[in-house]
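Section 5.1 Outputs to date
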Amino acid sequence: LAVLEAAGSGAALLLADIPTFRELWADAAIFVPPHEPAAFAEAIQALADDPPWRFDLAERARRRAGTFTTHRQLTGTLRAYGTAMLRHAPAGASGSTS
């Protein structure tokens, strides 16, 4: 949630290059190897040296953060539970309560 809050607040994102962050933030963040402090330092300096790039990246992160709504989370969770229930329903279960 910290990344989502930062993005929603309009911060440029500089993230560890891990699959989850890549999946969620794609072109709205800079990714660096997670165990290379020098790479983080270089990326921070690059952002500091290029305000237009930093502002563009921050705006892309803000827009992307706006797609992660509680309504979308709720509907996705309900869809996942519904799918799981259908896949694991006992044979012959109709799903009705009558």
